[in-house]
Known about the structure:
The structure holds two protein chains of two kinds.
Chain A: H1 9-40, H2 55-82, H3 85-117, H4 125-146, H5 150-178, H6 198-243
Helix pairs in contact in A: 1-6, 2-3, 2-5, 2-6, 3-4, 3-6, 4-5
Chain B: H1 9-45
Amino acid sequence: MSIWEYANPTKFMRVTGVALPWLWALTAVCLTVGLTWGFFFTPDDFRQGSTVKIIYLHVPSALMGINAWLMMLATSLIWLIRRHHVSALAAKAAAPVGATFTLIALATGALWGQPMWGTWWEWDPRLTSFLVLFLFYLGYMALWAAIEDPDTAADLTSVLCLVGSVFAVLSRYALVFWNQGLHQGASLSLDAEENVADVFWYPLLVCIAGFVLLFVALVFLRTRTEIRARRIKALETRARISAA
Amino acid sequence: MMPDLGKYALWVLSAYGVSIALLASITMLSILQARRTRRALQAMEEGRKPGRRDGARSEAPGTVKEAANG
Lengths: 244, 70
């Protein structure tokens, strides 16, 4: 079975229709367990006190803010190369979800930074590139809304997505590139020595799983809505033509 | 049950409040939009205009049910 079969709207609707209830259930379990575990059953950090509990929201949302854009990049490239409508609609569907995650990362970062750094905001490379990424999300959604023809909108937003990918990558690696600023290094790494202590690490992993599942569930749901909206538009156009 | 958040309680609770509100908003908006679109499509494909309950046939050739209605 080829992955391109899912570019067929019929197949996509059938598979996601079956998967969605399971995804919602798994999302609810992971988020409830992860956030309850992190908030109620983990100790304070010896330096950061209880603000360490913000990690269960800040890190997963920042991770998904960046990865949502990378998912949009992949689907935009599929649209540009293979012209599969479902992939363009999936990119469109992912943008508000990614923007929400990015906004959560910015808000929780400010709420964490104020008591720890003594400032809500700093024009630090990582923070700034993350803010620019959020602005790219807004621009991407505005561009989709501004163009009537869906194929033209998909073309132009795909190009915008390619450009914005620079900031998605920068927001992840800004610290490595510039080696300055207030923001600390990566909290998560495949290198076990760089990770946070186990007592914070395990609930954080559950929260990350919850955020990933929520993203997938929302993108599936919103893509299904976009496919239906496209169908409504087609029926309306057909009705107008037959009436003329 | 509530952990002692000490002097940082305001920051921690605000972070959780803002995040949960935003997550709930995007989820609810997506679900409501999905329901509205599904109903509109169903109405069209059943040959009715959206929002009308009198069963009047629209001019849309919506008699063929397609996968998008699934």
